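Most newcomers find our protein records easier to grasp once they have seen one. A record pairs a protein's sequence with a compact description of its fold. An example says more than a description, so a record of this kind follows:
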Amino acid sequence: MSQFFEILQWLVYNSFIPLLPVPLVWLGAWLLKLNRDLLSILSGGQLCFYCTAISAAAIRDIVLSSSSTNQFAGISVGIMIVLMIFSTFLYGVALILVEIDKDNLTSSYRLAWLSISAAITTTIVVVGIRLSLELL
């Protein structure tokens, strides 16, 4: 049960609080009676910054705490770098699509769902690696 609370605490400080602006922006748009739904807010690729941030923090923690003989630590850093590159690529695609297809909600929603999927996947991978390396 202790490990569950460690994961929960990590998620609160590293996922819930950093992602809190998303519902706050949606709430502000709703209060101002702007026609914005949650997917249109997320279609700009902002979740990619979250993915990059938790991946970079994981890399730092892995490098500082692992021994030089731990091969899984090196593989974990490689996985984190791939996640950072993917999220950067996704953000670039978001910028291009927003510029090209401003009125096409279908592509915006697809990009929003892709961003959400990337954030969930990155969070799961980072938590899994942190658990494997006992970094929680």
The two ends are 13 Å apart (CA to CA).
